[in-house]
Amino acid sequence: MTSHDQSYRAGEAKGRTEEKTNQMIGNIEDKAQAAKEKAQQAAQTAKDKTSQTAQAAKEKTQQTAQAAKDKTQQTTQATKEKAQDTTGRAKEKGSEMGQSTKETAQSGKDNSAGFLQQTGEKVKGMAQGATDAVKQTFGMANDDKDKDHFPTNRH
Fold first, then answer.
1. Backbone Cα Rg of the chain
2. Are 97 and 127 in contact (CB under 8 A)?
3. pTM
4. Which residues contact 87 (CB under 8 A, 6 or more apart)?
5. CA neighbours within 13 Å on the CB side: how many for 127?
6. pLDDT class for 106, splitting at 50, 70, 90?
7. Are 97 and 126 in contact (CB under 8 A)?
8. pLDDT digits (tens, 9 = 90+) for 113-125
């Protein structure tokens, strides 16, 4: 009976060994599956974060571009209004000078030629001043000639 007992014990040992082996394999498979899932989650998280960062950068770029566009439009409008204002003032000044010249010429008819000459020079100087002011406003002035008379605000 010894051989039968040995055979029985060998079978039991083999069964326990197989069971332990199967348990270890199951544990290894579970751990491998958990590691795989964890790696997939990490990859998905990184992908999501990258996508969010790219979207945020895109939005920031669009906002910056829109802000620049808005600023350009505001500057253009302000420049246009300034030019219209300056043109209007130049027209007014020219009209005033024209009226003044007309009045001066009318009253000067009765005066001597020397007086007319003197008045003409004054009117000429005023007209030149107005011309220079308009040229300065529109950036057409001679820099060397007008530097001392009109400060420039060119940027």
1. 48
2. yes
3. 0.41
4. 134, 137
5. 11
6. low
7. yes
8. 666 677 788 888 8
Chain length of the chain: 155
pLDDT tens by residue, 3-13: 888 888 888 98
The token duo for 126 is 């005023």
Fill in the DSSP letter of residue 58.
H
Q: What is the DSSP secondary-structure string of 86-142?
A: HHHHHHHHHHHHHHHHHHHHHHHTTS-HHHHHHHHHHHHHHHHHHHHHHHHHTT-S-
As a whole number, mean pLDDT of residues 34-55 equals 93
Angstrom distance (rounded) from CA 134 to CA 54: 51
Residue with tokens 């910056």: 64
CB count, 10 Å around CB of 101?
18
Q: Determine phi and psi for 95, rounding to 5 degrees.
A: -65, -45
Handedness of CA 127, 131, 133, 134 (dihedral sign): positive
Q: How many CB atoms lie within 10 A of CB 59?
A: 10
